[in-house]
Write a structure and sequence with these properties.
With 793 residues, the protein is α/β, with parallel strands linked by helices. It has 5 domains: 4-191, Vaccinia Virus protein VP39 (Rossmann fold, 3-Layer(aba) Sandwich), CATH 3.40.50.150; 198-349, Nucleoside Triphosphate Pyrophosphohydrolase (Alpha-Beta Complex); 363-585, Rossmann fold, CATH 3.40.50; 592-729; 736-792, no CATH class. Helix content is 23%, strand content 29%. The chain is built from 18 helices and 36 strands. The strands form 7 sheets. Strands 22-21-20-23-24-25-26-34-36-35 form a 10-stranded mixed beta sheet. Strand 24 (540-552) and strand 25 form a beta hairpin. Helix 1 (4-15) packs across helix 4 (74-83). The chain is globular, with a radius of gyration of 32 Å.
Amino acid sequence: MSTTHTALDWHAHYEAGRDFRPLTDTEKAILTEHLALPRDTQDARALDVACGTGELARFLATAGYQVDAVDWAQSAVERATAVSDEVAFHQLDISGGDLSSLAPATGGYRVITMRRALAHLPDRTRTVTELAALLEEDGTLCVITPHADRHPEELRGICLDDAEIDLLADGWQHSERAEAGDSTVLLLRGPKTAPASYSEKRTPKPAAMAGVAVVVTNEHGQVLLGWNPSRTVWELPAGKVEPGEAFEATAVRELAEEAGLQARPHDVLLLGTLCDATHGFTRITEIARITDYTGEPAAREPKLISRWEWHTPSAVRSLPQPLFTASAQALNVVWPGLLPDVPPAHHTPRPAKDVSLTFTEPATAVRLRQQLVRELTEAGWTDTPELRRAFTSVPRHAFLPEQPLAQAYANEAVATVFDEDTGRSMSSVSQPEMQAVMLRRANLRPGANVLEIGGGGYNAALIAELVGPHGSVVCVEIDPYVHARTQRFLAETGYADRVRPVLGDGTHGAPGHLIPENGFDAIIVTVASNDLPWHWSSQLAEGGHLVVPLRIGGFTRAVGLRKEDWGLVSTEISPCGFVPMQGAGRWDDTPVPIGETGYGIRWEDTPPAPLDGLDRALASGGTELWTGVTVEGGESFEDLQLWLATSLDGFCRMDGDPDRRGPVRLPKRSGAEAIVLGRSLACLMVEKREHDEATGTSTWEFGVQSFGENGKSAADTITAAVHTWDRELRGRATPQLTVLPPDTPDSCLPAGNVVAKNHCRIVVSWPGRDGTSDSAVGRGTVQGRSDKQWGDR
């Protein structure tokens, strides 16, 4: 609900010279008793919400607080500022504005007060939740409200009764209540963060078992819920279908009858039917989505719904009161993944209908998105106007509805699907800076045709912004749940007509009828791949770019590749971390156990060797050999990892619990670089040598542990490779990858180390090493071509 009219009314009130009821002596005594600061307290901050002309704010300042105060009436702020400079006064739309913008730079407010204002707000639950987020850990929210039992009926609209006060206190761990004449003072501490619960109503009549639930959002992207006092649940506008009535008509009628909002049937998007059972009956619920309407919510049927409130979708996850089960199920259809552990219902989706939803969002989301873009730009990630425009335009939070806005706009990857057995992330929205890197490497241009492997929707929307209205985006996702999320979120944000989501195994590329005549200009893979399937190269246009998190020797690198007529050549490469590919591209990285030692070996891109006898070698103890090669704390040595993985015969990764006391000193990171030689083993380790207290930097030395009769030989091999990296490659050479078909003869390979995959042969070269020039890598070194090119398959 917009507070525009309310703000104008109060502006006129204060502009006319009128004021507000002054603080009573009883109120002052209660505030002093409960909010007084201990002696010598420094930097205690307070916020007075709906401050009027500032009497309570000045009272808090006199008590020793540093006070911010806000009101929705500009005239009130001007009058308050003219009276006192001890308080920082601000004008802000209390109900629909960006309350989180008031948060102190560090910490939070020790006290937030709201006097004689809460009853005026249409969305008390959401507003109080947003204020709670501004408190410091042990902070207090103080609400002073006129009590309904002590005022005549005609003043009921400015009061709260006992039931409403108790409802407000539900969301807090500690609450105190004091009476001050005709008002009640409520002191709240410790907001609850328990997950949402769900509740059934009493046994319904059989005729009420087929109905429509209406999910309507306002200009701030908030969803409308009503409080049912008799059944003590929040619920969506909903009702039964009258005989012969279309679902769209039911949605429009119920929204008007229950909440006073007017909508048109052709603005209703039906998302499908939910079917479950309750009280021995089959319940059929059609989900209706509405974003375009007129009017303001009003409790037209107060015995059924006593009031309507707008709620931020992510905050619905922690409502202090139960949510009606059928409403929770409907919300999870609109925003898949929004609510956890909702009782199941079978959803039959409807075919897409030509109804355009109007996307809206809170001011907080806009501010946080702009802040994220500034951070990415300052760090050099969004280094083009096109990238900055894309990240500014696409609402990341809309693809992460289950996350608080601050988390949705953090420069971090956010997992959305977990493996039930292992707890590992199976799908996520990638870190924005990594998305910027990969989008830049894809060399996207307006009008380009792009294939994305991996769903979620956010990255596809960024691509759509970069290629513009004349480009195309196909997004292939294997997980039905992630695919459903992708479809819904693209529809919610207005990208449904610019991105084509496809349910399928991305290992096989795009379906044939969606491949452009000359191939895709770019293919962006957003899951880690252990191979480069020939489908990708064959569907890529000549000169097109493939960007993929490629796994080599157990290490994942974000690789940009350009297609030449004979294969692919890398343009850029950098470390990254992505969830693993599923389907035909899935790989098994389960370690092979070394007897009963608790250690294991992971073989990737290297033929497995027998591990017989290694357990005895470990048990007999090992030796250490230090290389003399050091790195500074924070210094990257990812190139060393790739060098060892591609240049050492028998290369593997050794796994185990790094905190376990045992013969092998494993690093805290995942596994140690190692080689197996006969019944012997050697693995890389690193140890701190020096620490500079002044700069906070440390120096670390590489060493090698070896076990078994051939351990020294294995250790010497790793040590020599480390010295080669330090002498010839470190800071001097950048690895380059040349990718050719799997049957390419050795005579046609460029100089470098060959990694054999199922679908290709990858040559890892180091231009500049031993005098090798860039021209010695790639096209110039291919002596001939394989008889069978990828594009011919």
